[in-house]
Amino acid sequence: MAERVGTRMREPEPSTFPKYFSLITEREQFVERQQTAPLVIKAVKSDQYELCPQGLIGWYLQPHDSSNACLQDWWVFVHDIRGVSGRHRHQGGLVLFILEGRGYSTMNGVRYDWEEGDMIIMPLLREGVEHQHFNLRPDGSSKWLAFIHQPTWNEQGSELVQSALDPEFVERFGVTSWKGATTATEKAVPQSGVHEGGRKDG
User: Fold this and answer.
1) How far apart are the first and last CA of the chain?
2) CB 138, CB 196: distance < 8 Å
3) For the chain, what percentages of helix, strand and coil (3-state, to nearest 5) are there?
4) 144 belongs to a structural domain
5) Range 104-125 burial, b when 16+ CB lie within 10 A, else e
6) How far apart, in whole angstroms, are the C-alpha atoms of residue 68 and residue 65?
7) Closest CA to 147 of 50, 61, 49, 44
8) CB-CB contact of 164 with 53 (8 Å)
9) What is the span of the domain harbouring residue 160?
């Protein structure tokens, strides 16, 4: 009886098509990460917040530091506004959800008041949106949660220019000028017809 001999085609080496091979490898790793990476990101502890030129920030996700998360393309962070934040400009296109407190944001010089439970949708503008945040809560800070999709941010060519520094940042680090920005001098001003405790007239 004749012996049957099986043959198997040898797969080409990765060096035969390096760019396509790396694409396939990257996609396989992406799918694996989507299926196995954590789906719950634990709350940021207050001692993990960083005080930066814009203010006190607690990071949930950051594309450069979230390699173990299934979402790789999002910035998600809490801004703890204790007084007046720094001021900066970018093209907009992000969403802020107010977690607690009350206050207002200025966008290109226009005031927008907010309170816990509100959502701010920052428009996309070619000339950019210069913005700053103010806490009006007399018994503590206000907090909002930001969501920024990095690929969208990149495709719109978003810049990021600091125009004023958070006063607490300046006081703690003694940095009075950074990339051309100096200390924010604005003060939080209660909304007309609203008392310090948040009670409206009438």
Assistant:
1) 104
2) yes
3) 20, 40, 40
4) yes
5) bbebeeeeeebeeeeebebeeb
6) 9
7) 61
8) no
9) 46-183
Would 22 be classed as within a structural domain? no
Task: Tell me if 27 is assigned to some domain.
Answer: no
Confirm if 58 and 78 have CB atoms less than 8 A apart: yes
What pTM does this model have? 0.81
CA torsion through residues 154, 78, 169, 190, sign: positive
Distance in angstroms (rounded) separating the CA atoms of residues 102 and 137: 6
Chain Cα centroid distance, residue 181: 20
CATH number of the domain within which 168 lies: 2.60.120.10
On whether residue 19 sits in a domain, the answer given is no
Residue of 45, 76, 63 whose CA lies nearest to 146: 76
Total structural domains within the chain: 1
Mean pLDDT by 10 residues, the chain (202 residues): 66 76 88 84 91 96 76 91 97 95 98 98 93 97 95 88 97 95 96 56 46
Can you tell me the distance from the alpha carbon of 136 to that of 7, in angstroms, rounded to the nearest whole number? 76
